[in-house]
Design goal:
326 residues; binds zinc ion; alpha/beta; 7-stranded mixed beta sheet; 11 helices; Quinone Oxidoreductase, Chain A, domain 1; Rossmann fold; 18 strands; 2 domains
């Protein structure tokens, strides 16, 4: 079984790894890993001090339940990658999902792009039989966007504008629809717009005049703009477009240094900008939403690459990629 290592500067290696486990640790055989924008940044980023095993969205099968009395051998499980720090103000207030210093498996320490994962007992969630492994890979992205939306404190009548340049925008759309919001999906890609049209209240191309967006939203402008691109032009557009007292949510990894990871709340003009971090995802409450979103998510085309081929082909131009671990 192979393990994928990122060394920075688009250098990756898949190596056989055979270090043995502690005998009774929870052991999960990884089936699939979904690589996203954060992984792309890690992959292409500056040389790292040491290699890192990526993989923060993953599904697998329990080989040995270890200390998890609720799991049995053969159960399918999904990875909740973030660990709360345990000692910040939020953690002390028993709200680990708001932890100020979460550490994320596959980003801050070795992740799941490996044959077997040992230990990390709090990170695995049992998957209901009704959910396919492919759909479950998107569960984390859905849950993350839900966190992002909740940071903007949406009201039932609110409209949300989703700026995207990749397939994760469809996950954000699915999340916003299950929150009952009026959705405007903005994407330059015609194929994704066609898919979004079946689920979104409005679908627009990029560089739409601000006035048109105001018309769509009854003259007000959207209440919430979610930027999934990390593109400064989009941020500028979002500031122009949101209604008075509107909120902008930055979710892209590209904003990590400039906003999302450091700015809790920032005001530009009348707009309030909030960043979001990957915190504990609480999958238990997400399973029903996932079933609701499955009709959309199962149609999002994400290419699959066997782990042994990644070092050669990399992301091959795709913003999202599934690693087949077998
Ligand atoms: Zn904390």
């Amino acid at each position: 079984m192979k393990t994928l290592y990122f060394h920075g500067r688009e250098n990756a290696t898949a190596e056989d790894k055979s270090d043995g486990p502690a005998r009774d640790a929870l052991t999960v055989k990884i089936e699939k890993v979904l690589l996203d924008g954060w992984d792309r940044e890690l992959y292409g980023g500056a040389a790292r001090p040491g290699p890192l095993v990526p993989g923060h969205w993953a599904v697998g099968e329990v080989v040995r339940p270890g200390g998890r009395a609720d799991l049995r051998t053969g159960d399918r499980v999904v990875l909740d990658p973030a660990a709360a720090c345990g000692d910040c103000v939020a953690c002390a207030a028993n709200a680990p999902e708001k932890c100020e210093r979460p550490r994320v498996m596959g980003l801050d320490f070795d992740g799941a792009a490996t044959g077997l994962v040992f230990g990390h007992e709090n990170h695995w969630q049992l998957l209901p039989r009704s959910i396919t492994s492919g759909d479950a890979l998107g569960l984390g992205i859905l849950a993350f966007y839900r966190q992002a939306l909740l940071r903007a404190k949406p009201l039932p009548q609110d409209s949300v504008l989703i700026f995207t340049d990749n397939a994760s925008g469809l996950y954000a759309l699915a999340t916003a629809k299950t929150q009952g919001l009026f959705c405007i999906y903005c994407d330059a890609d015609a194929d994704r717009r066609a898919l979004a049209k079946q689920f979104s209240d409005a679908v627009v191309e990029r560089y739409l005049p601000v006035e048109t967006l105001r018309e769509i939203t009854g003259g007000e402008g959207p209440n919430i703009a979610m930027d999934l691109t990390g593109d400064e032009d989009f941020l500028a557009d979002a500031v122009q477009m949101v209604s008075q007292a509107g909120r902008i949510v930055l979710t892209h990894g590209g904003w990590q240094t400039s906003a999302a990871y450091h700015v809790r709340t920032l005001s530009i003009k009348e707009a309030e900008i909030v960043g979001v971090r990957l915190g504990r995802l609480h999958y238990g409450s997400m399973m029903e939403q996932l079933e609701e979103c499955a009709p959309l998510l199962s149609r999002v085309k994400v290419p699959t690459v066997p782990i042994g081929e990644f070092a050669t082909v990399g992301f091959a131009g795709s913003p999202l990629l599934i690693l087949d671990m077998h």
